Amino acid sequence: MLDHNSRRENRASVNNQPSTNPSIALKVEKLSKVFESAAGKVFALKQINFTINKGEFVSIIGPSGSGKSTLLNMIGALDRPTFGKVFIGGVDIFSLKDHEIASMRNTMIGFIFQSFNLINRTTVQKNVEIPSIISCTSGEGKERTQRALKILDVLGIKDKAKFKPTSLSGGQQQRVAIARSLMNNPTIILADEPTGNLDTKTGNEVFDLLKLLSTKFRRTIVMVTHNDELAEKTDRSIYIRDGRVEKEVTN
User: Fold this and answer.
1) Distance CA 203, CA 217 (A)
2) What's the rounded Cα separation, in Å, for the pair 177 and 181?
3) Which residues in the chain belong to E strands, given as ranges?
4) What is the SS3 assignment for 72?
5) pTM of the shown model
6) Using CA atoms, how far apart are residues 46 and 212, in angstroms rounded to an integer?
7) Closest CA to 129 of 117, 144, 150
8) Residue 93, CB half-sphere, CA atoms under 13 Å: how many?
């Protein structure tokens, strides 16, 4: 229900080097980000290395200013590293041309944001369909709508399909954002503080939903969080401090 095959053709144009290990969803090698400032060079990330397997739910945790958001931007191809490589589904993403990176970002990465980032002037259903409309995947019209409704059904909010996001609760809006992230059946889902704008109960419900996607549907999820309790419930936690990996813990 949460898979489709059309994305394979879309990825063929950017995947010129197949993964040597098909079990790996994400691989980060010697990733560094350096900013120039009046005081000199500032290292936001320093030689970051880790691997995430398909179906794994990994949390990235650390204090404010530790480099978590910068790391997520690199993994999500929203910003380029100064040094190092990021492989998603075997693709060395920063070896690609800009238009290829944009295509890869839309088809291979699903994003879930703290502030939901929904388009309030259109319906829940259309919000979910947007990644597919941009990438021209999931077929045309009726087929795309059917897929969006199936995902909304799995997430328990199919009855909200014709509503505008502003009429939904925070937890329901985040479910819409999760549905949108799944629309193109991405290789990885990046969740940036997905419970940060929610109360504790609703936040736990959203987290449990992400956990279900990982355990039942084998979605690969990387979640940035400040919440130690939630981090401990993921498969593995990567602790970032001062731009470096301080430790990795299997939970």
Assistant:
1) 20
2) 6
3) 24-37, 40-53, 57-61, 83-88, 91-92, 109-112, 188-192, 221-225, 236-241, 244-250
4) helix
5) 0.88
6) 33
7) 144
8) 29
Q: How far is it, in rounded angstroms, from Cα 214 to Cα 11?
A: 22
Lowest mean pLDDT among 13-17, 120-124, 234-238, 246-250: 13-17
**Distances from the Cα of 168 to the Cαs of 83, 120, 127, in angstroms?**
42, 11, 13
- The mean predicted confidence, pLDDT, of the chain is 89
142 — pLDDT class (breaks 50, 70, 90): confident
- Dump pLDDT digits (tens) for 153-188: 999 999 999 999 999 999 999 999 999 999 999 999
Tokens of 51: 């691997």
159 exposed, middle or buried (CB, 10 Å; 0-12, 13-18, 19+)?
exposed
Angle between helices 141-154 and 170-182 (to 10 degrees): 130
